[in-house]
Design goal:
By secondary structure, the chain is an alpha+beta fold. The protein is built from 17 helices and 17 strands. Its cofactor is Mn(2+).
């Protein structure tokens, strides 16, 4: 990676000369070179831009937000780059709240809804094109010759359907603002500092909660994006099965890298750290180290999802026999989890309580544990005391969307204690996990972990499994793997 000439961006276009890197190889910029770099560049303004595909949906979302908080200034930042080490940054991902309301994904952006009449006027504040007069575009570490071209403010207005202004002027403007203000916290310290005497934690949390609950029911655009994410994820799982022999020769990292390739080629990224858990690692719920061996005769628990370019992620899990065939005990445990998942999916329908699918799946698993003599019944006692949780561990699902655990800030009464509606998308993912050091189960159970997870859309008359393209039944999994391996 090349070393840029300067580490920081000026606050304004001409406030001060751009600082040089302490240990840069060039001591400075001659007047002749600075003048030379100002001219001789073609006009690259884009004139035929069309609005982003979700422009109508983002406008409707802003209208709903405006109606909820009349007369108040609302500030929703995208966030800033985060340093990975020294002068390198992590890949940027805009805040979900900002991306949901604008469709824009660039760092330092801020959406502001200013109260006007009975509603609001929206403005999107962005960094404009890099300045060529002061050399920012080629001397600054975030200049366009270093990190790539960004849209002009005029281009941004065409894309997002929102008037655009220079974000570098926003903090001063907010400091002078009067009247009630709310901000989405945790993304932009500079914007929060400008509002420090104008906001309260309680009022800001109400804004965050509203934006989380707004995503509980997905619109048609969102459902389409989730299906794209799932379809790419299905292909990623197929990719993995085809290279299990190479994973056996290396490690779980080969599985992680294989799936990541599909995610980057067809989407924006993985939606979360892929869990590529072979053997006893399958009993660690969020095993993302992915540095263990992959052995024939063991199970591979693969929990992974592709994130689309619009930030919608799949979340799918399959537990696969590395050699293509389940052992008798592996199949018994897998089939129990499959039966529990079937019961959970059947409980997903409009009007049902959100908890119903979890309760249905947990009942099946408790019945199996009693049947196998691993816990003393009756089943009602086991469920009342939660004794099955030693081996089931986690909840049976969660909302899914722009976050893998979407709508997390929603109120309990609208989420976990709420009622399912058409347009909601959730995962159903029961599991059984017998830890390698669990002396309460027979030795042959120890180190076996099984989870099956699918992404389920609530429809007007029931549900639709968005990830039905991946087989779930044990015999179908074996047939599918055999076909992929040729």
């Amino acid at each position: 990676m090349a070393e840029e000439l300067t580490p920081e961006t000026p606050e304004t276009e001409s406030e001060e000369p751009i600082k040089q890197r302490k240990n840069g190889l060039y001591p400075g910029v001659s007047d002749e070179l600075a003048e030379n770099m100002k001219s001789g560049w073609a006009d690259t303004e884009l004139h035929d831009l069309q609005p982003i595909p979700q422009a109508a949906e983002t406008a409707a979302r802003r209208a709903a937000l405006s109606a909820r908080f009349p007369g108040e200034r609302l500030v929703i930042p995208a966030g800033n780059l985060k340093t990975r080490s020294n002068d390198t940054e992590y890949s940027f991902r805009a805040s979900v709240e900002y991306a949901y309301l604008t469709g824009n994904q660039t760092e330092d952006g801020v959406l502001v809804l200013e109260p006007e009449g009975e509603g609001h006027t929206a403005t999107i504040y962005l960094l404009p094109r890099s300045n060529r007069e002061n050399g920012e575009f080629w001397l600054d570490g975030q200049g366009e010759l270093w990190v790539g071209r960004r849209h002009s403010l005029t281009e941004a207005e065409k894309l997002y359907g929102i008037p655009a202004s220079d974000v570098r002027e926003l903090a001063d403007s907010l400091r002078e603002a009067t009247g009630p203000v709310r901000v989405v916290r945790g993304y932009d310290a500079g914007i929060e500092a400008a509002l420090t005497d104008k906001v309260t934690a309680e009022r800001d949390e109400e804004l965050r909660v509203f934006l989380s609950e707004a995503r509980l029911v997905k619109d048609e655009f969102e459902i389409g994006e989730l299906q794209k994410a799932v379809d790419s994820t299905v292909r990623g799982f197929e990719d993995v099965v085809k290279v299990l022999d190479k994973a056996e020769a290396t490690s779980e990292r080969y599985i992680e890298g294989t799936f990541f390739l599909r995610a980057r080629v067809e989407g924006n990224d993985v939606g979360y750290g892929s869990i590529c858990a072979a053997g006893p690692h399958a009993c660690t719920l969020h095993w993302v180290r992915n540095d263990g061996p992959v052995r024939s005769g063991d199970l591979l628990l693969l929990d992974a999802g592709v994130e689309t370019h619009t930030y919608y992620t799949a979340d799918v899990t399959r537990t696969l026999p590395v050699n293509g065939r389940y052992s008798e005990l592996q199949k018994k445990i897998y089939d129990a989890v499959y039966e529990a998942q079937e019961a959970g999916i059947a409980a997903v329908k409009p009007g049902a309580k959100y908890r119903d699918f979890h309760d249905a799946a947990q009942r099946v698993l408790a019945e199996k544990l009693v049947e196998w003599g691993l816990v003393e019944g009756p089943v009602e006692r086991v469920l009342e005391l939660g004794l099955q949780r030693r081996w089931t561990l986690h909840g049976t699902g969660h909302m899914l969307g722009m976050d893998v655990h979407d709508c997390a800030a929603a109120r309990v009464e609208t989420y976990v204690d709420g009622t399912l509606e058409p347009g909601m998308v959730l995962t159903v993912e029961p599991g059984l996990y017998f830890q390698a050091d669990d002396l309460t189960v027979p030795e042959e159970y120890r180190g076996i972990g099984v989870r099956i997870e699918d992404d389920i859309l609530v429809t007007a008359d029931g549900n639709r499994n968005l990830s039905a393209g991946l087989p779930r039944r044990s015999d179908e999994v074996e047939e599918w793997m055999a076909a992929l391996k040729g």
